[in-house]
Amino acid sequence: MVLVSAKYLVDKAYENHFAVGAFNVGNSEFVKNILTVAEELRSPVILQVHPYEYDLMGSDIVRYIREMAMTSNVPVAVHLDHGRDINDVMRAIRDQMNSVMIDTSGLSFEDNLESVKQTVDLAHRVGVAVEAELGSIGNRNASAENNMGRVYTDPDSAKQFVDETGVDDLAVAIGTVHGPYPSGDNDIKIDRLDALNEKLHMPLVLHGGSNNPDQKIREAVAHGIAKVNISTDIKMPFYHTIKDTVLDRPNDYEPWMMTPDADEAQKKVVAEKMKLFSSDGKADLYFADSIHLKPLYPYDTDIVDKIIYDQQPDETLATQK
To answer: Could you give the residue numbers annotated as active site?
Structure first.
């Protein structure tokens, strides 16, 4: 299976009222586990790398993900999660990720808009989809007094933002937080999601998808969420199981002794999430459209910068004819 655009994955999910899980890969073991489950459940999947994970593992992890994806039998996209600036975005594009997020939501509306507009202009020249964020997803370390840092996405502002940037997907702030909720409670606002859908009519992304009640996530997907980011929920069982194994078997040290239980714990959660998002069994929806099932990159890596920086969009198109 060749890599496919994350935009193609998410657009079709939106049209068919399900969501694609976007799972953060903290190491190569995560990649193997997630793809194993995706293939068993016939689910499309997005493998995403946060800049901190990227800094830790380097560009080699992207090459590994791409190789694994190319031999998978389900549609796979490779995504940069929460790119901090244009440098993060360009690193991901040079490494041939096929989807990027630029997260400058902490800036003013105007500065965020300009940053995303620049990213879209550059990334679209080589066919890379762009996700952005408007509003502020909550933070588990923030205080309840200031709404855990949440700034809900305003529908009218979102409409202006999407129209002026041309962004492919928008992460919206509707009540979730990054990481586990301190109380285990949540505040997903479906009415806010409905108002956004009425204005935008496009796939929306839910960040902070971990540690939410299943019914709330299911409801959000039914109301237009087409991509759900999951990180904490697959990392905690993996590393906690490793910890338990080390404590139970302090004299063991071989990887094939230490990781199998952790792998199974993680795969169990991945399977639960894919079923929750109703992406299981949906892989075959993508095979009917052969036009989109082709290698995303018609360019060699070493000329990506030339295309992006030296050519205008119309000149780029001319080189493909």
So the answer is: 81
